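Ticket reopened. Same input as before:
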Amino acid sequence: MATVVVIGTRKGLWLARDTGDRSSWELSERQLGMNAVYGVGIDTRRGTPRLLAGTDSEHWGPTVLTSDDLGESWQEPEQAALAFPERTETALTRVWQLQPGLPEEPDVVWAGTQPSALFRSEDGGRTYAFVDGLWDHPHRPEWGAGYGGQAVHTVVPHPADPTRLLVAMSTGGVYRTEDGGASWSPSNRGITASFMPDPEPEFGQCVHKVTRSPVDPDRLYAQNHGGVFRSDDGGLRWTAIGAGLPSDFGFPVVVHPARPDTAYVFPLVADADRRPATGRFRVFRTDDAGSTWRELGKGLPDEPHTGIVLRDAMCVDDNEPTGVYVGTRNGEVYASADEGESWTTVAEHLPDVLSVRAAPIG
Amino acid sequence: MRVSVALPGALRPYAHGRAEVAVDVPDGTTVDGLLDRLAESEPALERRLRDERGVLRRYVNVYLGDEDVRAAGLLGHPLRDGDRVLVLPSVAGG
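Engineering reply: fixed in the latest deploy. New output:
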């Protein structure tokens, strides 16, 4: 079975397909022109896999496109795929996240946007309806903007319950709903915010990414703007687990699809010094839920490196053994077909890699 | 009356490949009104010019003759039969 990697960059999208064993890769021509592609998805719930791309052009604005032929062609609906309602007096800046819903709801896709809002599609990601409940949350006026803008960049469905969903935003933190999006509660207890006077506020944290174990839905990991955290109760409480890392600052965190105690991060030196924490390009993995971390570098560049991995530029696939993928702001993409033990180069010399997703395509 | 909208190459795919789109509008239609009409007939084109609030996108410039309609405050200016509105991307990006 071939594996496809979708690579969203600051200037267009590329597809890579493995030519056997996920150790060598063929890269497509650039697609989607000069658009920045912050959000990509591979929806494998339908007979024909559907690619999702949230794009924005500095000139012509944002949109969402879909492809049912693995990127040979892209479609967008005649009317805007996604737009803020008039009452909000707001305009869409960017779609950060396109997240397919549960297998039993094969046409549901969630979109997280800048400014911070959530949208829900019921037609497989072609068009989206605004989720009023999150927008109307009384905390919203106090949600702030990080360097990347004020956005819901993370949408995490519950693998067994379509009414339960978690979002993360910068800044604002983690919010959860248990009624399908009508009402939302902050879900940040234990997550610190070193940039605020109260180091453990109810909300306002700058959570960079959250990942949920598909086999143990109460197990979550969060990479914060300073701090790596774990939750064992679906996000009610979080515990710091970054002590064993060279730095607890970073953007992505990804949990292993089958082993809830295994997760991957890419630590950077510090907020004020954004390069790989050890000076070399290294992924870190825990196999004991964050008690200890191991540096993974076999096959990755050994020379000093400045490439960093942004929040959606790390992912895993559903192969056995699990594949791990990272893209860099220096335009490289690396893949591991053995859970991070060793790595090969998928692509080099691309624009800044913003988003990476990979899936086996039958 | 009939006016036209001239498009840069990047926008022609959203206008069936045309470099210029002719639009029939009632007498007295303004530049904004022309874009409203475009939103009905060519929605994928119009939303690349204006956001969902109807605000001209920051790096999209619209000219009537030599006048930048945003800078000159001419979005509410009534058009005349035969007027040609020119859309150009401004300098942006890196």
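Chain A is about 0% helix and 40% strand. Chain A touches chain B at residues 33-34, 57-61, 63, 76, 78-80, 83-84, 86, 89-92 (CB under 8 Å). Please confirm and we'll close it.
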